[in-house]
Amino acid sequence: MARKFFVGGNWKCNGTTEEVKKIVTTLNEVEVPSEDVVEVVVSPPFVFLTFVNSLLRSDFHVAAQNCWVRKGGAFTGEISAEMLVNLSIPWVIIGHSERRALLNESNEFVGDKVAYALSQGLKVIACIGETLEERESGSTMAVVAAQTKAIAGKVTNWDNVVLAYEPVWAIGTGKVATPVQAQEVHCELRKWLHENVGGDIAASTRIIYGGSVNGANCKELAAQPDVDGFLVGGASLKPEFVDIIKAATVKKN
Ligand SMILES: O=C(CO)COP(=O)(O)O
To answer: ipTM, 2 decimals?
Structure first.
């Protein structure tokens, strides 16, 4: 089954109303390959979600950067999956390494969040990735397999899941994984899905790469057979995000 190229822009904790308006206006004016070729999702901070959702061109979609692990209630400061659905926000990013590291989100907690968000009808970008220390000690695959297992153990339907491989050492560092490094892990992850979840799911699930992706390095990464798109941080706030979206055309040949 063909995997449609996916480009997500994770704006993280950035932006003022004016800046957000400017980014969306720019995105609304650019020419990019059609929705049949590339799926584009941008993820502003919670407070701008509705604003962006109402202003953004209809062929691009919006994602929240997180949501609560279960049904809403007495959880001060949290945003529930039900609220996102209520606001017509179709996507949510779950398990980003910044949350795993800074807010102590465990593999189990991330797995529960993914399952709950899916159960409410959200589509999920589930993030995994190893630290530099883990890579250097040779445990990259063990780490990402454990992260994926915690998700796979709780997910029955993978149709609405995109797996984002984001090595922590490449995030915000300018130290992008080489195309060979990215392909190696993506290929292993697909193999893991094949062996532990199923052949069809392994073949159809998009595995996207994140970590210092920019306009200059995106094409070579996109050309790798198991790289199905990107989750972009810093460069998603800049005009070069459009070049990254256009990298989708690399796959057509
Ligand atoms: O964390 C990321 C996307 O979720 C990647 O961030 P950068 O593209 O800024 O390295």
So the answer is: 0.99
